[in-house]
Amino acid sequence: MTSTSPSRPALSGVREAVRRTPAYPFTPIDAPIKLDQNESAQDLPPQLRALALERLAQQDWNRYPDLHADTLRRKIAAYEGWDPAGVVVTPGSNVLIKLLTELSGLGQTFLTVKPTFSVYTLEASLLGANTVQVPLNPDFSLPVAGLVEALKTEGPGLLFVTQPHAPTGHLDAEADVKAVLDAAGEGWVAVLDEAYYQFSGSDGRALIREQPNRISLRTFSKAWGLAGLRLGYALTSPELAENLQKVVSAFNVNILTQTVAEVALEHPEYVRERAEQTVRERERVLSALQDHPVYTALPSRANFFLLKTPDADAAYQHLLARGVLVRRQDKLPMLSGCLRVSIGAPQENDVLLAALGEVS
Ligand SMILES: *Cc1c(COP(=O)(O)O)cnc(C)c1O
């Protein structure tokens, strides 16, 4: 859908960078088995949902929430073993991506790899940042030398590294991630997006602690099973957090989200169990597809994997006809023929495997 027809004025009051940026590429489609957004197959455990609802009933909804969600930030800090002054919360980490672009990419450089999470380049484009993308290596590993070179010549600005990477699911050696972050000196804000770390066994906190210009992004949308809540957070130095907090609008996390997240943080045991189950399911699905005659399932350290097919549209339609919704990624560089498939509940994965088994 385009909003302007040729006969209407071009809305030149809207900045040109905004007008020429395409909308976020997502079309909601109803399907019984939803493996298209890397969500958790399970909601918050029922007893925690009940507890959260009870607490919500006792709140004053006519009052503004905490200015910077201090209670929630303290609980996240305790969970992560982090200084509360270095924690910033927003409604989803997508908002942090936007705010970091405002903090550091606007009027400067936005450096990342290609292909990458589409929100990065979308936000950089909206704010008219000088976007520089270094292609991943053919095995999807980080192009360390290319990034180090760009960090020398393209600054100042914002660096985005995703571990495990999206949409490939690739996890790099920590030494390679460190080499890139080390090359991002004072002229850079260096971001490590860890949306999927619970499924990979990786943890960037030690690297983030090494320098005040480094920042990790984490989210309640994936392993925590709370995508509907919209909550993400940053772990960084108090100095960088203080500046980032300035670009966060006041009262930006509502009391409903704060309350539910606080309950989850008081009972976080379920997250590890669920992540372990997702990893077991991922390995089961990948090994079941190992000898597939037509499709290639690529290894992954996240809660999704890429399925390489000779005809992405045909494969997508075949799965959808069997009730399984996945995400096309075949228009991205290096990913021709690729679909992205989230790991679902065991019965959902069984339906996926049965549908893929029909193709020969
Ligand atoms: C899902 C995802 C996020 C999380 O976004 P939210 O706004 O917190 O839901 C961040 N980064 C990447 C790469 C993701 O895939």
TrEMBL record:
Domain Aminotransferase class I/classII large spans what residues?
Answer: 33-356
What InterPro entries does UniProt report for this protein, alphabetically?
Answer: Aminotrans_II_pyridoxalP_BS, Aminotransferase_I/II_large, HisP_aminotrans, PyrdxlP-dep_Trfase, PyrdxlP-dep_Trfase_major, PyrdxlP-dep_Trfase_small
Keywords for this protein = Amino-acid biosynthesis, Aminotransferase, Histidine biosynthesis, Pyridoxal phosphate, Transferase
Q: Which SUPFAM superfamilies match?
A: PLP-dependent transferases (SSF53383)
Single GO biological process annotation from the record: L-histidine biosynthetic process
Q: Does the keyword NAD apply?
A: no
EC number of this enzyme: 2.6.1.9
**Catalyzed chemical reaction(s):** L-histidinol phosphate + 2-oxoglutarate = 3-(imidazol-4-yl)-2-oxopropyl phosphate + L-glutamate
Residues bearing the modification N6-(pyridoxal phosphate)lysine: 222
Q: Name one GO molecular function term.
A: histidinol-phosphate transaminase activity
Annotated metabolic or biological route of this protein: Amino-acid biosynthesis; L-histidine biosynthesis; L-histidine from 5-phospho-alpha-D-ribose 1-diphosphate: step 7/9
Superkingdom of this entry's organism? Bacteria
Assembly notes: Homodimer.
Matches recorded under HAMAP family: HisC_aminotrans_2
Q: What is this protein called?
A: Histidinol-phosphate aminotransferase
Q: What lineage is this protein's organism placed in?
A: Bacteria, Thermotogati, Deinococcota, Deinococci, Deinococcales
Gene coding for it: hisC
